Every structure is written in C-alpha cells, then in structure tokens.
C-alpha cells in the first residue's frame, strides 16, 4: 500500500506495508472506496493458490477493511475458500450505484477452461 503525493505523484509506503494477502500467489484485487461509512473502504484479493513450478495451495478470495489511513485489516469471516484445483484469475468490482450493494465478481478460467467450473462467480460483501 502506498500514499500518492498530490504535488508530484511520488509514492510513499504506508506504515506496516507490505501486508500479507491471506494466501499464496495473489493475482488480482478489487477496491470498493468509502462504501459503508464514508471513511471505510474494502479490498478484495484473489489468491490463486497455483503457479507454474510452485507449490499448489488452496485458492481463496480474501476481504480486508481498509481504514482512511490505508491500513488493511483482514476480515476472516469474509474469506471465500475455493476448491483445490480451481484457478481464479481476476477480481472485478461494480461501478456506480450498483457498487453501493458491495458486489465483487471473480473469473475462474486457467485450469478449469472447458469444464463446468470455468465461469464468472459473484459475491456480495
């Protein structure tokens, strides 16, 4: 996590950064900015769980509350554990008024292409 200077655009690491993604091989994230209280945002991270020439682990999609200071805190009950052998690849967030309903969707494609598991899945935070 970084802050961005409004004067020249340089990045400064947020205190405590880097933060653990709650899994292995994070490949994508989605950010819901100031959704609930006007000062609290949510970050979703896709942890692929498989990577060529690496140890395979259970994939997941993990959710974090992000404070106004940019500090993410894992919400363990919002972690979605996925079936071993699946391979989620992208996390997308809704835009506009639908974003107020806190939707995330992720695409599962890589190892499941051609199977009944190769689809877009949707979750509500």
Describe the structure.
- By secondary structure, the protein is mainly β.
- Helices cover 0% and strands 39% of the residues.
- It is built from no helices and 10 strands.
- Strands 3, 4, 5, 6 and 7 form a 5-stranded antiparallel sheet that branches. It has a 3-stranded antiparallel sheet with strand order 8-9-10, with no helix packed on it.
- Strand 3 (26-32) and strand 4 (41-47) form a beta hairpin.
- The model has no long low-confidence stretch (mean pLDDT 77).
What proportion strand?
35-45%
Instruction: Tell me the overall shape.
Output: globular
Secondary-structure-derived class: mainly beta
Give helix % range. Answer: under 10%
Secondary structure tally, helices: 0
Spans of at least 5 consecutive residues whose pLDDT stays below 50 are none
Features:
single chain, 0% helix, 125 residues, mainly beta, five-stranded antiparallel beta sheet
What is the strand and helix layout of this fold?
Layout: E1 2-4, E2 11-13, E3 26-32, E4 41-47, E5 60-66, E6 72-74, E7 80-81, E8 88-93, E9 103-108, E10 120-124
Antiparallel strand pairs: 1-2, 3-4, 4-5, 5-6, 5-7, 8-9, 9-10
Can you give me a brief rundown of this structure?
With 125 residues, this protein is mainly beta. 0% of the residues lie in helices and 39% in strands. The strands form three sheets. Strands 3, 4, 5, 6 and 7 form a five-stranded antiparallel beta sheet that branches. Strands 8-9-10 form a three-stranded antiparallel beta sheet, with no helix packed on it. The chain has a two-stranded antiparallel ribbon with strand order 1-2.
């Amino acid at each position: 996590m970084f802050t961005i200077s409004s004067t020249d655009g340089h990045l400064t690491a947020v205190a405590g950064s880097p933060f653990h993604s709650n899994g292995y091989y994070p490949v994508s994230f989605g950010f819901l900015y100031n959704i609930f209280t006007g000062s609290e945002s949510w970050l979703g991270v896709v942890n692929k769980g498989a990577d060529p020439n690496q140890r395979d682990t259970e994939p997941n999609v993990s959710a974090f509350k992000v404070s106004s200071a940019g500090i993410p805190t894992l919400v363990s009950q919002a972690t979605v554990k996925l079936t071993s052998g699946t391979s989620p690849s992208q996390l997308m967030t809704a835009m506009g008024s639908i974003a107020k309903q806190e939707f995330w969707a992720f695409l599962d494609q890589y190892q499941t292409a051609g199977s009944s598991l190769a689809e877009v899945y949707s979750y509500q935070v």
